[in-house]
Amino acid sequence: MRVPLALMATATALAITLSGCSAPAPEPQATAGASSDLIEVRGDFGDAPKVDFPTPVSPGTTQCTTVIEGDGENLIEGQQALVGLAVYNGTTGDEIQVVGFGDEDPVPVLLGSNTLPGLSKGLSCTSEGSRVAVVVPPEDGFGEEGNASLGISGDDSLVVVFDVQRAFMPRANGTPQLTRDGFPAVVLAPDGRPGITVPDEAPFESTEVELLKKGHGEEVESGDQVVVHYTGVNWDEGTVLDGSTWEQGGPTAIIVGDDAASQGGPPFASSLEGVTVGSQLGIAVPADDAGNPATFYVVDVLGVV
C-alpha cells in the first residue's frame, strides 16, 4: 500500500476482566461550515472525484462536509482506515495529490499524532463508506513553514476529499473467554488497552496460545496482511516491550505465516492463522537460543487488509 508523500507527518483463571463500561463515543473534532460547504465534489464513491471550489478557501477552523454518507460509527482517535484522498491547495486551487482511487490501492491513514491534525479532525466526522470534503487552515496543516516540495506556503489552506473505503475496528470486540490457571491475567482499560500481570510460575517451554476473546469476523489465513493491536511483556521482569502498538498510538499491519517471524515480523505472527477477526489472543513465547527472553503478548485481531 502506498503512503501519500508528506501527508502522513498505531494470576487468575479469568484472563480478561472488563473494567467498567466502555467510554461513550467521542464527539467529532470537526463539523460542516461555510468553507467546507463551498467544496463541490462530483463522481461515484471509490472513483477519483471531480473537485471544484472558489479560491481562496480561508477556513478559521478545520471543517468537514459529508458528500456521500456511509454506515456505522464515526472514526475515532487511534483507529486506522484505508482511504482514497484528493488533496488541493486551498489558496491557489492547485492539485497536490490524488491517490487511492479506482484500481489503485487505498492509502492507510491513522487518526493520531503521525497524521496532520486537520486530516485526523476531518476523518473524525466520517465513517466507512463515506465521502467527505475537508478544509484545513494552515495551523492544522503544515503550519507557518508550509511545505515547499508540495508548493504550500505558510499561509495556504488545504482542501481534501476522502473516500473511506475500509475502517478497521479500534479494539477486539469478540466474546470474552475463560482461560487456564497459571496464564497471565489481562485487564482492559475502557479504550481496550491491556494491562498484563505475569504469574510467578516459570514461563512455558513452548509457545502457548489462549483465546481471550472470540471474534465473529472472517478467518485469517496464512499470507494475509492483518491489522493488529498488541502489547508484549518480558515474562521474567514484567516490563512492557518496545514496539507496543498501544504506546505508539495506533495499530499496525503484519503478515501472518510460519516464515513471518524469520523475516522480521513479530514472534506471534504464525499464531494468528485460523483466528477470526475481532478476536483477542494471549500468546506466551518461550526464550530462544538467540538470547531473546520469554515473552507474553496480548494481540487484538482488527481486520484483514
Automatic annotation (TrEMBL):
Its EC number is 5.2.1.8. Residues 87-168, 223-305 form the PPIase FKBP-type domain. Residues 1-24 form the signal peptide. Keywords: Isomerase, Rotamase, Signal. Gene3D superfamilies: 3.10.50.40. GO terms for molecular function: peptidyl-prolyl cis-trans isomerase activity. It comes from the Bacteria. It catalyses: [protein]-peptidylproline (omega=180) = [protein]-peptidylproline (omega=0). The keyword Isomerase applies. Pfam families: FKBP_C. InterPro entries: PPIase_dom_sf, PPIase_FKBP_dom. Belongs to the FKBP-type PPIase family. This is Peptidyl-prolyl cis-trans isomerase. It comes from Agromyces flavus.
